[in-house]
Amino acid sequence: MSFLIVLICCVIELTYMSFAPLRKSNWIVDWHRWLESKLGLERFIGATAVLISIALPVAVLAYLFASWWIDSHLLTLLGGVTVLMFCFGPEDTGYDVEQYIQAYRDPTDKYSSSNGNNFLNAIIAPPSDPDVPFLRAVAIAANERVFAPAFWFIVLGPLGALCFRMASALARNLSPGDSQREVADRLHQILLWLPLRLLAVALGLAGTLGPVLKLLSERTYGLAEGTTLIGDAAVAALGDNRASGSNDDEHVILINSMFALVKRAFVVWLAVLALCAAAGIV
User: Fold this and answer.
1) Does the pLDDT value for residue 148 go beyond 90?
2) What's the pLDDT at 245?
3) Which of 43, 258, 264, 268 could form a disulfide with 202 if both were Cys (CB 3.0 to 4.6 A apart)?
4) What is the pLDDT of residues 162-216, one digit of tens each?
């Protein structure tokens, strides 16, 4: 069932339509602030109070699946798809890529320029090479928005996906300098550690594996260097695997090639997941 749910959600998210507008609600942060205002947990247990804000919705979701949906395959399927689609994103990577390319082709398109540049700048500060930052951003966003939630859905079911999304939202949206944000950020980094490495290998299998394996064997990436790892792996995996038959300039070709590589990497892990499902592992 987990494989079917992940397959349905990944196909919808990466190909057909965007659910980003439905995921724009900032309820996770609003819920945390409401709970803190009512209970004042930080006064008693310090910065770890943010973990209570994450644990309570996860516990409610566990109760719903255990008591209402466990005996119905249809409800389990619908509930799982709903939860995972909500835990993806919240932004749509494919849409952001399109907006960036549109802004690159037509700088006078202020709407596309705003969306595309906001995506690029929010993900990673651009280095001197004009191509590299967006190539890295595509891989980083794909992991954060799709692969990591899907991974934790496979491992822990809807509870894992919701826990990851809440940790990510709180780490990103709580006020800078807030000690609870630091705790949420550390939890987010822990939950990213394994998915980042699995996606790095998948990028290598879908692109050029040798440079990725060399990169992972020669350099040690700390817990806080996850985005650096996946960015380095993505650029190494891309190599000379660039889209052909296009009249666009080199920059657009590279961007489209990276997004195609990310999609192929997802296909690699879906194939692995299918084998696990056939063997009765998931």
Assistant:
1) yes
2) 42
3) 268
4) 999 999 999 988 888 888 999 999 999 999 999 999 999 999 999 999 999 999 8
Q: What is the pTM of this model?
A: 0.86
> Measured between alpha carbons, how far is 31 from 17 in angstroms, rounded to an integer?
28
Q: Are 84 and 160 in contact, with CB atoms under 8 Å apart?
A: no
pLDDT digits (tens, 9 = 90+) for 215-241: 989 888 888 888 889 989 999 998 765
**Cα–Cα distance, 20 to 36 (Å, whole number):** 28
Cα–Cα distance list, 12 to 81, 261, 264 (Å): 10, 18, 15
Domain containing 158: what range?
2-278
Instruction: Judge contact between 152 and 188, C-beta under 8 A.
Output: no
Do 206 and 268 meet the contact criterion of CB atoms below 8 Å apart?
A: yes
| Cα–Cα dist 64/253, whole Å | 46
For residue 193, CA distances in Å to 50, 150, 230 come to 20, 14, 10
Write down the residue that tokens 């064997």 correspond to: 217
What one-character-per-residue DSSP string does the chain give? -HHHHHHHHHHIIIII---GGGG---HHHHHHHHHHHHH-THHHHGGGHHHHHHHHHHHHHHHHIIIIITT-HHHHHHHHHHHHHHHS-SS-HHHHHHHHHHHHH-TT-HHHHHHHHHHHHHH----SSSSHHHHHHHHHHHIIIIIHHHHHHHHHTHHHHHHHHHHHHHHHHSPTT-HHHHHHHHHHHHHHHHHHHHHHHHHHHHS-HHHHHHHHHH----GGGHHHHHHHHHHHHHTT----S--S-HHHHHHHHHHHHHHHHHHHHHHHHHHHHHTT--
- Closest by alpha carbon to 82, among 148, 153, 145, 29? 153
**Which two structure tokens, joined as six digits, stand for 104?**
């690159």
